[in-house]
Batch of 4 targets.
Target 1
Amino acid sequence: MNALEASFRTTLIGLVAVASVGCVPQEKYNDLDLAYRSQQQQLLRTQGDLETTRANESRLRSQLAQSAGDLETLEALRKGQNVDVDKLLADYESLLKKVGNMNGGPLPAEVNAALIALAAQYPDVLQFDEKRGMIRFAADFTFDPGSVGLKASALSVLSQLATILNSNAANPFEVVVVGHTDNVPIKKSAAQNPTNMHLSAHRAIAVRDALHKDGVQASRFLIAGYGEFRPAVPNGPNGAAQNRRVDVYLMPYFVSMASGTPAADALPSGSGSGSGSGSAKAANPTKVDDEPTK
């Protein structure tokens, strides 16, 4: 049992103990209930992180198996053909290192500091997770209600993010944009977004298009949408604002075994420059409740 599970069970036992006593101060009950819910949300987030790590490991191991097969085939032909097996061996070793370092380290210091500063400047719009190299945009502050249209304030923040992504330090990273929703069915935009899966993917594409417009190369992007199937917190009757989000991950380039060329060879040349200014100020967003923005 890890520390999080132990803490979760301790809080749950506390709630049961309080309930069994009968008459207890309401304030004490509320405190224990709040602690229980907090631990429950933390457990869900940890489970989500573990699921993502396992998926990444499975992908890398699949690439590793494919490269091993290619290596065996080419080594059998090495004596009779002009094949760059040494290069393939280097790619194979690179994959081995990636599998052995699944958790990875933080982003380069320059990129990390820039993203921390951006998140501090717009705390209602985005959050930055240093450990995972992930920027999380709150959908309620990023998109117009019931659409995939980006708000003007969000466009300003994305322009500043593009400037960071176009820096020399951030150029060696792929930009993985992943959309999520809550579990409330689509109503206002059902014609354009029949399901939450469509809405999450279309919002991820909208963020990608905005970053690309500000100079981030199209070849760096990977887009995904999970709909309501990976909630950050439990959904209530009106869903949950925390689940309506778009996450942007900065991931190292992986070796492309299909072409036999390391993805690093195809990295964008030069740092590029976004059209947005790092000093641009987004309009102060107004807090909203948990009503769905669909």
Note: Residues 109-266 form a domain with the 60s Ribosomal Protein L30; Chain: A; fold (CATH 3.30.1330.60).
Target 2
Amino acid sequence: MTIQKKLLVLVDGSERTTQTVNYVKNFMPVDEHARIVLFHVFSGMPEEYRELEQEPNCVNALHQFKNRKMEEKRKIRAYLEQAKENLIAGGFSERSIEVKFHSLENGVARDIINEARNGYSAVVLRRRGMGALKNIILGSVAVKLLQSLTFIPIIIVGQAPPVKKIVLAVDASPASMKAIEFVASLLGGLGYEVCVFHAIPGLGAINFDLSEINKREPAEVDMSDACLEAFKLKVARLFRDVKDRLMASGFESEKISEKI
């Protein structure tokens, strides 16, 4: 299954989103099918402020506020064009990059979610830290997106530059299969190493070596007589299926590892 390489990249004009654009430039494959949309939701003047325009005592304050918003708008538009030039310098064609300056309609998160429904293959947003939980994704908009963008992959960008190594956490769920298809479609044939990772709670209490079971053709196992062997067989089949999907998309066999 081929997934369209169209990324919705969320930008706000900060230094952190400069890092996001740089990450996309170094991570996203440059080809004729790639398309990147730089998307910004501009809040403008809140409705509560507009209601004060008829108040004589608020005229000067509102005028200053409008000027600040106009300057902010100018700076963000300039940043979006700079980000576009940065991507072009990285090898993307001008026609493959679109800038969308969106005026707030229903709320920042809701407007992003509505835009994400327009045929994108993934949404790219930055990680934002706060206090002792700086390594956790925080912020009301980010949390709302994580909760609501269940219909599309999310790429979360940190500060570290991209490397050609991927940890692909898998299980047998339909959502996991979609993640495998996305990674295969986006990065297959580009020389990436991938570690297929499956987590099993309480694994340390048992011997879970798949080396022997992977050497032979899996056979059916009676669950009542050998529950553990049947469980090993299930995981081995999962890994084999994932590896076959990755290799079919261009990943090299020797660059695919497995870990439990």
Note: The domain at 1-161 is CATH 3.40.50.620 (Rossmann fold).
Target 3
Amino acid sequence: MNSPYSEKRPGAHLKLRSPAKVNLFIEVHGRREDGYHDIETVFQTIDLCDGISLRLTDSEMDFACTVGELETESNLCLRAANLLRAATGENRGVAIHLDKRIPWAAGFGGGSSNAATTLLGLRELWQLDVNDAELHNLARQLGADVPFFLRQGCALGRGIGDELTPIDARGEWEILIVKPPVSIRTAEVYAALDCEVMQRDGPRTSSALISGLADGIFREICAGAYNRFESVVMPLQPVVARVKRILQDSGAGVAMLSGTGSGVFALYEQPSAAHEAACRLDRNGDLQVFLTRTIRGIVMT
């Protein structure tokens, strides 16, 4: 699948923005035979982005990151590049630089977004004849959330989250992102949830939320938002529960956990309320606070 186009020379580069996401809805429908869980989730990209720079090299594969602990061989940027290179037989290399802004291990999908952005960027930089379906199949090998970030915007995810249906969401909303000074292991949350699932009243569905998103009705979006994992995470991490309560009391339409946490986000209809809450929370040095908005589609500069 080598490119039919004229090749770019070493030194050519791309600069891309790699956006975060929130889960406006997430329900777990049971454990599968392969050990994964069937879920129903609604993804939404937000305008909080890492920066990724790709520079073409003769054959070298280099990776650097502004956060030292993420500068490893297992980083999803480098894994995505190596996977695409192996799948296409591409001989040229790339130097990747990741400017990390999205809080990691917090439920905002930064690593998955980085992987998808690297795949998209290298398809262009290496000028590869790889179609969207082929890129999607590669993305699935890197993680359940990675395929979503190839299209971004708003989407319903089923299966393990990689069976995607786009949602034509109307409107854009202010979102306040808060990362408490704790991290949560996804495996630990799922393990605790398996016991709790048997006692629940019944599964929630995302239909009300999707209807609200399609109509752009803020109160319906907030009423339909839901995260099953809150029943596990909040008792495990009181600081996360405290941040959620602060956001609920700040004029937000809804405040909730994103993914399996530990990050929390709140939706606001009034920008002034979002700004006031951000200023108030930003005075707490233990919290990472970001004021941002929902976005549609792929962002590239």
Note: Residues 137 and 147 are 8 Å apart (CA to CA).
Target 4
Amino acid sequence: MKESPLITLATDFGYNDPYVGVLKGVLYSHLKNPGIVDITHNLPVFRPDLALPFLLDSLPWFPADSYHLVIVDPGVGSERQGILMRGFFGWIVLPDNGLPQQLLKWLGPLEAYLLNKSSFPEGNSSPTFQARDFFAPALIRLIQGTPILDFSSPIRAEQLKTIPEQSSGNCLVWNTDHFGNILLGYHVQKNPAEVNILLGREKIPFVGRYQDIRPGELGVLVNSSRWLEIFSREDSAANRLNVKIGDRIPVGIVGGEGRYL
């Protein structure tokens, strides 16, 4: 068994219920001195497609011997499968809800394995809390050194569930952060010459920094993680524009290079 494994958790469980604590209790009970990092437990509920950018922003910052448990599982208790993957960021365990296939496209190449449900009889019969009964035990076996093929089998990319791709020119709002900034589903590889956004009567200028506009004014920029971000300096753009997670915003992008979620 590996001592002091670094484990990250990202879920849509929130903080009002005991689910996160129970999940940690299972890990602490079976592993030696794990270091557990909470990436977030406020992933958009029932939306695995919106979990992707949170992982793109966080996984690359962790060492290659890390372990990650990601749970957004609208298919809990159903016939959906469990997936184990390995990449430059370490190992990740998660449901086959479209997110593994997206991770392959954005962070590949990755090794992918199908968790054998027969190896986890308790989890296989768990109707509502398979994070505790199926996915966490799979991660524990991996960390304890159980041979991977004893509880999983290789799976090809085309066998994974897919998520429909977003059409160009229409950006998905994947997060409104603590500051009220609106995170758009366009990841910039080369800065555009212009970004044209008109919301109601608000034409939002494309700028380089928050300080390029006066307090209270709106702007759009390429943020530090290379996403397009609408902001209101020292104010909440989300409240001002009445924008929420899952909305789609028409965006005109001139020049540069990037990709949509």
Note: The first helix runs from residue 19 to 30.
